[in-house]
Amino acid sequence: MKKDYYEILGISKGATEAEIKKAYRKKAVEFHPDKNPGNKEAEEKFKEAAEAYEILSDADKKARYDQYGHAAFEGGGGYGGGGMNMEDIFSQFGDIFGGGFGGFGGFGGGGGGFRQARVKGANLRIKVKLTLEDIALGVEKKVKVKRKVQAPGVTYTTCSTCNGSGQVTRIQQTILGRMQTAATCNTCGGSGQVISSKPNNADAQGLIVEEETVTIKIPAGVGNDMQLKVSGKGNEAPGKDSVPGDLLVVIEEIEHPTLKREGENIHFDLYISYPEAVLGTSKEIETATGKVRIKVDAGVQSGKILRLKGKGIPSLNGYGSGDMLVHVNVWTPKTLNKEQKQFFENMMEDDNFKPHPSKSEKSFFEKVKEMFS
């Protein structure tokens, strides 16, 4: 089971952006590879801290994590911070380390020289439509994706501009003296390699477009507009050591004709006739996962809410499921024949037909409060 991101950084949920950054820097300095050479445990903690910071430093990702936990980034791979390469971490968060550390395995962490960048391909984004049943049960979807991949037969050679480093160094004379700066090589884009040969059907970067069927495992309990990530299924990038981008899957929830979702709960309006309300009845109703039969007691009042425990949407965190709330509506006929009208006229003064709400009868506001509790 994955560790809590707040626990990894040693902060509370209410931590500010500055506190999150400070906590990450502290952990990064403590477990930095330069301070712990050959220590695999420290390296894993360094990666864990980077993963936690990647999520908590982004307001949108943090909000989703606070609501759904790690499950918000699962489904086809999720965020793979624990499997990041060191150069990826330094590339994303290198500004946090300052200039206090040198390189790691030939890849600079901040101020100890430059490093060759690992070029990453562009991300792709698709929408996947889900029914309420898909959301309630979880589903596996197969989608066709057109993505750029390296063409068979493409070869690379070391970039002569940067000599394979991916960066070029410039020395400038300033009023403060000679200053040295490093910038990404414009010739190779930071990969340190250029194409030496490529097939005719490839573009200038040695890439071709292929259609691939991608399997996406979508966990139960996802919500509309939630974004899942399938790692490595975006566009590839040129270069022997490049890494592909990711496939971002945006959930689109198809509106159900009779069931209304509210978070993990489901609402359903059940209409019954006046005789059914008086005598009681049983009804077969639809839920998100199939049909069930419920009992409606004799003398039920319009506005009564029947709660079906666990018949709602599962929690993404795995903490059970919501409920299904059945709202009973007694249907009053608008027209009556002569005999029906005569019957109700005779009952007008009958004490049994006059309202006698007891203390156990909940008011409308009490029902609403109970529904949301």
UniProtKB/TrEMBL annotation:
Protein name: Chaperone protein DnaJ
SUPFAM superfamilies, sorted: Chaperone J-domain (SSF46565), DnaJ/Hsp40 cysteine-rich domain (SSF57938), HSP40/DnaJ peptide-binding domain (SSF49493)
Note on domains (UniProt): The J domain is necessary and sufficient to stimulate DnaK ATPase activity. Zinc center 1 plays an important role in the autonomous, DnaK-independent chaperone activity of DnaJ. Zinc center 2 is essential for interaction with DnaK and for DnaJ activity.
Primary localization class, coarse: cytoplasm
Function: Participates actively in the response to hyperosmotic and heat shock by preventing the aggregation of stress-denatured proteins and by disaggregating proteins, also in an autonomous, DnaK-independent fashion. Unfolded proteins bind initially to DnaJ; upon interaction with the DnaJ-bound protein, DnaK hydrolyzes its bound ATP, resulting in the formation of a stable complex. GrpE releases ADP from DnaK; ATP binding to DnaK triggers the release of the substrate protein, thus completing the reaction cycle.
Sequence ranges assigned to domain J in this UniProt record: 4-69
InterPro entries linked: DnaJ, DnaJ_C, DnaJ_domain, DnaJ_domain_CS, HSP40/DnaJ_pept-bd, HSP_DnaJ_Cys-rich_dom, HSP_DnaJ_Cys-rich_dom_sf, J_dom_sf
Annotated cofactor note: Binds 2 Zn(2+) ions per monomer.
Subcellular location as annotated: Cytoplasm
Pfam families: DnaJ, DnaJ_C, DnaJ_CXXCXGXG
Positions annotated to bind Zn(2+): 159, 162, 185, 188
